[in-house]
Every structure is written in C-alpha cells, then in structure tokens.
Amino acid sequence: MKYNTLGHTGILVSELCLGTMTFSSAEGMWKSVAGVDQKLADELLRLALEAGINFVDTADIYTNGESEKTLAQAIANLGIARKDIVIATKAYGRTGPGRNDVGASRGHLLDAVEASLKRLKTDYIDLYQIHGSDSITPIEETLRALDTLVAQGKVRYIGCSNWQAWQIMKALGISEAKSLARFDTLQAYYSIAGRDLEREIVPLLQDQRTGLLVWSPLAGGLLSGKYSRENQKPENSRRSAFDFPLVDKERTWQILDVLRPIAQSRAVGVATVALAWILSKSFVTSVIIGARRVDQLRENLAASDLQLTGDEIGKLDEVSALPPEYPGWMLPLQNSNRLADVPRV
After folding, report:
1. Catalytic-role residue among 62, 128, 190, 227
2. What confidence tier does 120 reach under pLDDT thresholds 50, 70, 90?
C-alpha cells in the first residue's frame, strides 16, 4: 500500500480508502446500495486495515446516519486507536424534515457536525467535506463555518465534493484573502469510463496542490466485470436497480474490450485493472472502494499491488480518451512554440 499526503497537508493517507456507503441497511435509494450488517462491516474494516488502509470515508446521509454508527462500532469492536485511522465524513444532504435541515449554511453545518461526532463516537473529524454545491448559501458563509470548526478542534481538515472548477477556485481565493481554512481535497467521480474531470478540474487541483479523492471508480459497478454488451443488466447487480453515475454505455463497452484481455493476461479481475489505471494517475490522492462482500473487497485491494506497464496504460488511455472540446484542442496548438523554447530540467 502506498501513502500520499492529503492535499497540501502533512497527513498521510492510504492510496485506497474504505468507503462505507454500503454499511447498515435502509429503504429508498440506499436499499440497493447498502445492506452490510455489523459483523460484515467489522470484517471488511479488518481486511482493509490488514492491507494497509488507514483512511475511511462516510457521510451523514449514508443509510440515514447509520453508516457512521456502524463504522464507529466497527472501530470499537476491532480496538483501533483513534490516532491510527483517518476518518472522513460529509455534510450537506437532508438530515431532517425542517427547511434548514439541508445545505451548507452555518446553521446546518454546526448542527450536522455535532450529530456526526455523536454517531462516530469521536471528539474530532479528520476530514470534513461539503457534500454538494449549495446554490443558496454564499461560499464565504460556508468557509467561515468550517473555519470555526477547525478553530474549535472539531475538524482538522476540510474538503468539498461534486463542486465545479470555478466554485473551488473561488473558495480557495476567499480562504486566501480572508485567512480562512482552505479546502484540502475534492471528492469527485472519476473512472476510466468517466474522465470529464480532466478537462478543467484536474489542472486546477494540480496547480493549487489540492488532493483528489475518487468516488465510484468502477462507474457504479459497470467496470466490475459483470456487465457487457450482451449482459447489460446482470441479476442482483446494484446498477440494474440504480443506474448511476451517468456513463456513455457504448464507450464503456469499448473500454471493457481492452480491459478484459489485460485482466486475463495478469490473472486478475477487470475491476482490479480499472482501479490500477486510476492509481497510475499522479493527481489522484486516494481511491474510495466500497464492498458488500469480502471477495469484492479483496479484488479491489489487489489494485494496490498491480503495476500496469506503460504499454497497458497507453492502450487504456487511448480507448478511454475524451473527445476534444474547446478550448482544450486550441491549447496545444497555441503553446507548441512556447513549450519548445523551455529547456528540460
């Protein structure tokens, strides 16, 4: 297992992070995603720790708060010292029927953090993330609330999730100008079947030294190896019941045509290769892996030991390449002469 700094900080996190959206059970949208009971949650966390994972991710809305509770109990059952595990959680989603039981307002965040601390049975949260973009709350209000939580010691680092590039850059600018705690990470969807992040957000993260935490690296299970052109709705599969995130299916079948031979030649699963491809990207801090079974987790963990060759990465890059969009296709043309004059160091 490799370790990376959490954005522009001094804390080290494993390149794989155990996602706990599957922990506990619930109705509605969570029914097809979750279902991991306490005994299995304990086992999954134990296997993750034995593989070198020191980073876990949850959210206050996962199974209506039960995910945080199950994670806390698993940590207690395994006797894990608080200092030896990095806990990330999120706030923004609806947690009650009230008009203000949702969003990134100061009021909601101050209430939400107390509820998460109680469910997680901890005095502090290592990484507290804003789970979505609030179209009503001013960004500065959100940042000031987070800065208060950092000053109080209830939160150590902050991040955002599913934000647009301009919003992230605006937030970083406000933090710089107002001397407020700044976002150290972005949690975002990224997979070999969904590389949109590379257009604007990845260059921003690299420039600002902001970490990237990847959710749904297997495109909601589409890259698990169960799906194909011939079998687009396998039995008992999560995506068959909850078709998310949005993916170009035909493009994905073409990618799987390249993934499968590589997986077969390496005697590993398709999912392992898909995850290893993400881990080969230098801008990725940690990849969040979730599981509902032990064998799923083992297959995902194997990605940390799989080093793809340059030729394999090249083939995967080529088949999954984004179609050109303006101004992206203009930049290489206009910069060709400038870059040619820069000496290589």
Report:
1. 62
2. very high
